[in-house]
Specification:
single chain; about 280 residues; alpha/beta; TIM Barrel; 5-stranded parallel sheet; 3-stranded parallel sheet; 10 strands; globular; disordered N terminus
């Protein structure tokens, strides 16, 4: 080999070496990838994409010693199963009401111990709120809850992840809010629910306001007349079906839309907490 040809072969060897090194440089450290981290869409729900007229009625802030039993009577008369997001302090005061609700087939969810704003609290403070209520529900019903509704709908993405990891909870928000906590009157509560509810809705109300309880018989009648069928939140989530994707611009109007592999779930709550919940 002549001396003059050496630079050419050195150049070829350098290029080959760089090409072989590229995959190693581009590869990510597997330790930095949390493959078990739950996807947002599998943890948080404000509504569910379902194939049918199914909805979930939810009631927050109880139990009330007088109003919740009245609501349970109404639900029984209509053969409706609902989901109650209870306050731990109230569970301890009225365990028999929560026990009755569970015995009659209603779902019991965690709504904190004393209704604080989770988004403004430390992890230890939130953990205490959740754990104490979890224990209170277990003591009243014999079973631990699987759902959590944060007060005011206020919760950070990081809190959702560690609460799901530590407690196994799904985070439940809502897409129908009659603002019954403002006590606008039974007819207004009913009309707002009727106007906003659609298949897959999670309807928010509170079983601590007399007007809400008064509104429920006619609300249930009207929802049933529209063809809606009532299930618990967990049942609604199990009914989730894939949601069609929007058609591609190149095939618009020529072929059916494809189906996404995961169910449609909730939208992350707005930064400003809702006064409801």
């Amino acid at each position: 080999m002549s001396v003059s040809s050496l630079p050419f072969f050195c150049f070829i060897g350098l290029v080959t070496s760089q090409l072989r090194a590229e995959p190693t440089i581009a590869a990510q450290d597997p330790k930095k990838i949390n493959r078990n981290a739950p996807a947002e869409s599998s943890v948080t729900f404000s509504s569910v994409h379902v194939d049918g007229p199914y909805i979930a009625m939810t009631f927050d802030d109880g139990p009330s010693a007088t109003l919740t039993p009245k609501l349970l009577d109404i639900l029984a008369a209509h053969h409706i199963k609902a989901t109650f997001f209870v306050i731990g302090e109230n569970v301890v005061q009225h365990p028999e009401v929560v026990a009755r609700a569970a015995r009659e087939g209603h779902e019991i969810g965690n709504h904190s111990w004393s209704h604080p704003n989770f988004g403004k609290m430390s992890d230890d403070g939130v953990r205490s709120q959740v754990q104490r209520t979890d224990d209170a529900i277990k003591g009243a019903t014999g079973a631990r809850p699987t759902l959590l509704r944060p007060p005011y709908g206020s919760i950070t993405a990081r809190q959702k992840r560690w609460i799901h990891d530590q407690f196994g909870y799904q985070i439940i928000l809502w897409d129908v809010d009659p603002y019954d906590w403002k006590r606008p009157g039974p007819s207004v509560v009913r009309n707002r629910i009727l106007k906003e509810t659609q298949p897959g809705s999670i309807v928010l109300s509170h079983d601590i306001h007399p007007g809400t309880i008064e509104a429920m018989p006619s609300t249930f009648d009207a929802l049933e007349a529209k063809g809606f069928r009532f299930v618990t939140v967990s049942e609604l989530i199990r009914m989730a079906v894939p949601q069609p994707s929007p058609p591609s611009p190149r095939t618009h109007g020529s072929v059916p839309a494809t189906i996404t592999p995961s169910p449609s779930t909730s939208i992350v709550p707005p930064p400003v907490p809702s006064p409801s919940g």
